[in-house]
Amino acid sequence: MKTYKPTTKSRRSMTTLPYRELLSGDAPHKPLIKKARSKGGRNAFGRVTTRHQGGGHKRQLRAVDFSYDKKNVRAMVETVEYDPFRSAFIGLALYADGERRYVVLPKEVKAGSSFIVAENAPLTPGNRLPLGKIPVGTFIYNIELRPGAGAILVRSAGSFAEVVAHDGGYAQVKLPSTEVRKVSDLAWASIGAVGNEEHNLVKLGKAGRSRWKGIRPTVRGMVMNPVDHPYGGGEGKQGRGLRRAKTLWGKPSGKGQKTRTPKKYSNVFIVSRRKVGKRKKG
To answer: Is 272 exposed, middle or buried (0-12, 13-18, 19+ CB in 10 A)?
Structure first.
């Protein structure tokens, strides 16, 4: 982690990643990038559906491969690059047939390393194979929920899941949220843990750096008026005045409260619910 001399109040606590040491320094591969227009958290009708988004620096979208449909062809990682749309680092993979694709990189894989997507691939970081072929206790990432649908679980920096059991055609996977979930043995996953594990240690240091990232300010509910938030109103500084935490729309929020839809279709695949609050730390 890179620190700075306290030349200003914000600089005193600011930290950044040592990108010169972690990245290969190459420019993005032009055929795999395209323009990405910022929507500011708004949908097709112009209404804000995701709060606290807007502004920020212009960014180019990297076409990252999560399908991994090129099987039994060895690939070499040419570069390690920064992706402005995700916390993990990506690498430009050159396959033996000459095709290039961007992939999310695990911790141990550097420029010059190789990996392969195959049913009988070795259990080395970066390789990808079906969950049924992965033994219990192995750390995995880029997990499919349905065979062939592409990786959608465990893709952010420093995260990993663990195979804890195999039973009845399903692998029981312990996710970063501590939830244990059943996933088909025919679904594919990559071996290892996602790289850039120090991402959560970065301190922005000042409000402006947050705005560069396209993050707008968050206003506390207790300082709003009663018409604007359930916590609003009162003379002077007040507590929320409610037994349980609520969102702006009156829905449950906060630690220790269940917010999952009671009759969600995927409930049958959950072996044990995630632990929240103090229980998770213990």
So the answer is: exposed
Closest C-alpha among 105, 58, 107 to residue 84: 58
In angstroms, the CA 163 to CA 152 distance is 16
Domains of the chain: 18-199 (2.30.30.30), 224-282 (4.10.950.10)
3-state secondary structure of 86: coil
Per DSSP, the three-state class of 129 is: strand
The tens digit of pLDDT for each residue in 120-156 reads: 999 999 999 999 999 999 999 999 999 999 999 999 9
| Cα–Cα distances in angstroms (integers) from residue 191 to residues 86, 153, 155, 187, in the given order | 20, 13, 12, 13
Look up the pTM and report it: 0.89
Based on C-alpha coordinates, what's the Rg of the chain? 22
Residue keyed to tokens 């062809």: 73
Structure tokens at 141: 């990432």
